[in-house]
């Protein structure tokens, strides 16, 4: 059985000429638009649009279908407007991409207060940049800039990669070896400890090791857990080491639950950026999200005020 929303989506694509334009006009995600279109094409049994670059060009059968359904759909939309409450407004929906740990530490606590609908997406940074450029995401939080001319990046904070450990780690022994015997012996000391890593991303550990020891670590973590916040909770048990962004464990270090072991001979820092398309229908909603991030992460960071 056909879903009438498929026809509404079909009409929006026909009118706007793009999947992104249809998604914006209907206040749904671009994947939702693609799903409606593919479902309708499967139902009617033929292609309704030719995809040329980003433009959606209606096929001859697509034009015939549009002429057949356009007026009835418009009448149904008029009926809907007449019967819905006069005070009711369409609530916009924005899609935001970031890493899981950043969401938990920053935005999660404010989700229930947002005056608009929100879809959170987790993924790798290159994938999120591509989805932002295609209109699937409206805003991303990323330490890496893209090259698309359609995307603008705004620096708002920074993160430093630090070596942290459980409260029972003998930090005095480590720093004594580092001071008296040098960096090579310090590396051997670190390798004797138990290490934590994550299933998806070991880049923090690799970058930290390369910057301070000149090569990638030649060992594998003893414990692989789902994410960086899991590592922090595990370190509260008293032992183990990990390299993680400082903002994720700031409170635990201040409370003595986790120890700051070493910032490295050379500090490893990443700038965090807001990434969004230069043209958007959701500027006020995006600004609202940006404000929440600055509130949480920008208090002690000069980048947030640039």
TrEMBL record:
CDD domains: PBP2_LTTR_substrate (cd05466)
InterPro entries assigned to the protein according to its UniProt record, in alphabetical order: LysR_HTH_N, LysR_subst-bd, WH-like_DNA-bd_sf, WH_DNA-bd_sf
Domain HTH lysR-type, residue spans: 2-59
GO molecular function: DNA-binding transcription factor activity; transcription cis-regulatory region binding
Domain of life of the source: Bacteria
Keywords: DNA-binding, Transcription, Transcription regulation
Key word Transcription regulation present: yes
The UniProt record lists the keyword Transcription regulation: yes
Family, similarity comment: Belongs to the LysR transcriptional regulatory family.
Protein's UniProt name: LysR family transcriptional regulator
Organism (species): Chryseobacterium elymi
